[in-house]
Write a structure and sequence with these properties.
single chain; about 475 residues; alpha+beta; BirA Bifunctional Protein, domain 2; Herpes Virus-1; Rossmann fold; 7-stranded mixed sheet; 5-stranded mixed sheet; 15 helices; about 30% helix; globular; binds glycyl-adenosine-5'-phosphate
Length: about 475
Amino acid sequence: MPETTIMDKLISLCKRRGFIFPSGEMYGGLQGFWDFGPLGVELKNNIKRSWWKRFVQERGDIVGQDAAIITNPKVWEKSGHVAGFHDALVECKKCHKRFRKEDFDSISQFDHYKNDIKSRKSFLSQMKCPYCLAEVQIGKIFTEPKSFNLMFKTFVGPTEDTASETYLRPETAQNIFVNFDTVRQSMRLKVPFGIGQIGKAFRNEITPGNFIFRSREFEQMEIEYFVNPKDDEKWFKTWVDASYQWFTDLGLKKENLRFFEQPKKELAHYSKATTDIEYKFPFDKGWAELMGIANRTDYDLKAHGLTYRDEVSKDEFVPYVIEPSAGVDRAALAFLLDAYHEVEGGRSTTTESNKEQETVLRLHKDLSPVKVAVLPLSKKQQLSSVAQGLAEQLRKKFTTAYDEVSSIGRRYRRQDEIGTPYCVTVDFDSLEDKKVTVRDRDTMKQDRVATGELVEYLSEKLNI
Ligand code: GAP
């Protein structure tokens, strides 16, 4: 399947089945803003729950917090975001489309050509504006790069004057740094320790796009892990490995993941070293950042004037910070792409027969938005009353769907398409033997299970 069509098909599935769709779509939407529907919110919650369990709940050295999205603007001055959170923007003078300078490999090389007019001219003559195909000539067709601050401004209180001006946070990290002392003291924490947070971040991206890959409103899952400066490299490696492990444990294929060490000249203003975990997205020449792990050194704590005193050794120092930072939306996109499968000619069992092409979302069970679907073989009242009672019972423990509309084969396919790992079928024999058929999404294996043992059977399979 050509890679571009995978994105198109996934976007269509996401809208049709209530995962993700443009925000405010009935009024034309708003570029870079997306709504997560009934299945999308379950998927996102499952991603966040898994991350929180692994990196906060199960660790004795990490605590959580949930800070305000809007905070004192001094936070953003001191952090360097007011002065330095910029993208370079270029505009095609012909069609007036704007681009991030970074988006073009070739454009990012403009600097190399600065003092070499001849080679710069021949290089630029091969480039075209990707929208109107005008030939690129710097200063003629494309404007010179202009710096553009990505933070959304807003006003607190009734007057729109500068005294009340502040920003929507562009990362969750700063709220952690400014709470360093308060959280550390309240929980009596000693270095090394971390503070984790999941929450919304906002960036006025010049070119949002590739579905939810680059949005203007998105969610981050971040840990700021505070270490003794002499141990920074050891912890950096530990966090690169732990982050990779989380993605592969949740089923991302290793061949679709790789590490990318950011070149020194491209590092963010706070970073000494950053390793990105890249996913083989079907755009941007195949690989793009899924998450980043940065060694932020003592940049942030120093910027906010914070320090640390070891109670035992009495040493005073400014801890270094290792920061694994992942986007929930970008992770959701990678999980969906990785799980998306088409089966030519369909799949069939004793109760299903299908010759059509079938879509199966092979999501990890922890991530599936619906865990169990209850499907009575027919709409007949004797079956549907038993099946509805069963669904009612299962709902107390698992996210459960109930479907009695159309043929059983079609209903199985509807569940496969959204990644439901188990379908429970109630048939006429069930009325006699008090057993139901449980069908596994991936193996297609069918087990006959006593209704009294169904919750236990599914709990074991789903590890819930
Ligand atoms: N605190 C560090 C930080 O924010 P970042 O590399 O700018 O670092 C971290 O962002 C992660 O947040 C990215 O790896 C990506 O997963 C996600 N992210 C960043 N910008 C995004 C955007 N515009 N849309 C969706 N996700 C984004």
